[in-house]
């Protein structure tokens, strides 16, 4: 937060800053009273002189610190000298260990010798331990320069989305000309519109963020580029994920994202196939201007041909579900497959598998105006589920269903 008694707000390169006044002393930024769990952390302050200066004396002109208990407990502190600012902007990192859950302030105090520009948004990075490469992680937490030619064009095209990711402590790095983002404990490539389109829904709105005890098997029908599968696998209580994606190019992009997450990717079994109510191999036309999340096994009236394989959902999922139940694992099924939800639910109902599943998380899409989400929820209610309906009408929507515990 900015102390407007010390200076004036301004925005530089999409970053909110304060411009301090000569002669004004005090905490130029403070807050944000951020609650943190026990662990190791790093934070980085950005400070630069507002104008070029020649410093005759090497005075302390600012001090950065990490405090808790309303400023009464200081966990880290460092002084900033005038000489450090002779060449312009500097980054000042601090590391600290938090022993208990508490709220933190990250403050910059100034003494008013010169006018300073101080960035308000401070990246706070959790560390594995005291020996972590905090400087490398903090560098990744900086917002990339939109004018950097090494960045893919999608960064400029979706700059507002990347700004939101940055505000939510995303780490970004370029490897071999490809931008990799780490957000919510998951790394993924962000080099096309497809890579960005689901980020807000999955990582910020948390539409599939279920919490449970025990051990779980997750089934992801409509894997797309693997982001939901990775988020599910990142949950410690999810022991296995089975992910289905019929479109080969999309499947390979998911595989590439899994390679970025070896610590959890071993939980995920990938199947390059779609699910419906019958076995079938078919060629469908896909409009290449649509994002991969809009690809449908029904196909479009025109477009590029794609060869896909489909299996009866009950036939394919029965051995997966039986094996999980033999390990005393509950089953959660996430479904998002552009209209195939209806034949999939029909197959599961006809095969008697609905009663073996504990939870559904479903984004449905009507490709037949005669069908609505009620065709999906009715058999669930009949089988003892409670349905949480988030759909707003129209031709698609979202609902969750959880089985009664008796």
Molecular structure report:
There is one protein chain. The protein is an alpha+beta fold and 406 residues long. The chain has 3 domains: 7-141, Jelly Rolls, CATH 2.60.120; 153-197, no CATH class; 207-403, Rossmann fold. It has helices at 134-141, 153-157, 159-167, 193-197, 199-204, 227-233, 248-259, 262-265, 313-326, 341-350, 374-382, and strands at residues 7-12, 15-20, 26-29, 32-36, 39-49, 60-68, 73-81, 90-98, 102-110, 116-119, 124-127, 171-175, 178-183, 186-189, 216-221, 238-244, 268-271, 274-276, 280-286, 304-312, 330-335, 359-365, 385-389, 396-403. The strands form 5 sheets. A 7-stranded mixed β-sheet has the order 17-16-15-21-22-24-23, with helices on both faces. Strands 1, 2, 5, 8, 10 and 11 form a 6-stranded antiparallel β-sheet that branches. Strand 1 and strand 2 (15-20) form a beta hairpin. The longest helix has 14 residues, at 313-326. The protein is elongated and about 85 Å long. The two termini are 49 Å apart.
Distance between the termini: 49 Å
Helix content: 10-25%
CATH fold name of the largest domain? Rossmann fold
What oligomeric state do the depicted chains represent? single chain
Give me a quick take on this structure:
The chain is of the alpha+beta class and 406 residues long.
Structure characteristics:
406 residues; Jelly Rolls; six-stranded antiparallel β-sheet; alpha+beta; Rossmann fold; 24 strands; 3 domains
Topology at a glance:
Layout: E1 7-12, E2 15-20, E3 26-29, E4 32-36, E5 39-49, E6 60-68, E7 73-81, E8 90-98, E9 102-110, E10 116-119, E11 124-127, H1 134-141, H2 153-157, H3 159-167, E12 171-175, E13 178-183, E14 186-189, H4 193-197, H5 199-204, E15 216-221, H6 227-233, E16 238-244, H7 248-259, H8 262-265, E17 268-271, E18 274-276, E19 280-286, E20 304-312, H9 313-326, E21 330-335, H10 341-350, E22 359-365, H11 374-382, E23 385-389, E24 396-403
Parallel strand pairs: 15-16, 15-21, 16-17, 18-20, 21-22
Antiparallel strand pairs: 1-2, 2-10, 3-9, 4-9, 5-8, 5-10, 5-11, 6-7, 6-9, 12-13, 13-14, 19-20, 22-24, 23-24
């Amino acid at each position: 937060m900015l102390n407007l008694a010390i200076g004036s707000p301004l925005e530089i390169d999409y970053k909110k800053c304060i411009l301090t006044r000569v002669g004004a002393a005090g905490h130029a930024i403070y807050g944000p009273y951020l609650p943190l769990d026990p662990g190791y952390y790093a934070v980085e302050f950005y400070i630069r002189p507002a104008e070029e200066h020649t410093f005759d004396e090497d005075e302390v002109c600012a001090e950065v610190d990490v405090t808790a208990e309303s400023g009464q407990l200081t966990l880290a502190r460092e002084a900033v000298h005038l000489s450090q600012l002779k060449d312009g902007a500097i980054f000042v990192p601090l590391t600290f260990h938090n022993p208990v859950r508490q709220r933190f302030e990250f403050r910059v105090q100034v003494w008013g010798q010169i006018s300073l520009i101080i960035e308000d948004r401070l990246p706070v990075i959790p560390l594995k331990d005291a020996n972590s490469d905090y400087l490398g992680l903090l560098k990744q937490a900086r917002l990339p320069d939109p004018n950097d030619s090494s960045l893919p064009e999608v960064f400029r095209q979706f700059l507002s989305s990347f700004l939101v990711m940055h505000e939510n402590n995303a780490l970004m790095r370029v490897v071999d000309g490809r931008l990799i983002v780490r957000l919510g404990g998951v790394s993924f490539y962000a080099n096309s519109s497809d890579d960005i389109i689901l980020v807000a829904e999955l990582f910020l709105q948390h539409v599939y963020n279920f919490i449970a005890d025990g051990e779980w098997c997750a089934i992801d029908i409509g894997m797309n580029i693997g982001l939901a599968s990775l988020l599910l696998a990142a949950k410690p209580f999810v022991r296995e994920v089975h992910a289905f994606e019929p479109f080969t190019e999309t499947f390979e992009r998911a595989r590439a994202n899994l390679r970025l997450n070896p610590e959890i990717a071993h939980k995920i079994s990938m199947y390059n196939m779609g699910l419906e109510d019958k076995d079938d191999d078919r060629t469908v036309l896909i409009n290449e201007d649509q994002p991969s999340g809009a690809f449908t096994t029904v196909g479009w009236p025109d477009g590029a041909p794609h060869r896909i394989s489909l299996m009866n959902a009950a036939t394919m999922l029965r051995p997966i579900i039986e094996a999980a139940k033999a390990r005393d694992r509950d089953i959660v099924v996430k479904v998002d497959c552009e209209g195939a939800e209806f034949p999939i639910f029909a197959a599961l109902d006809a095969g008697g598998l609905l009663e073996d599943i504990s939870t559904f998380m479903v984004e449905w899409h009507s490709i037949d105006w005669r069908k609505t989400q009620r065709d999906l929820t009715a058999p669930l209610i009949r089988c003892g589920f409670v349905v949480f309906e988030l759909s707003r009408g129209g031709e698609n929507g979202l609902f969750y269903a959880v089985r009664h515990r008796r």
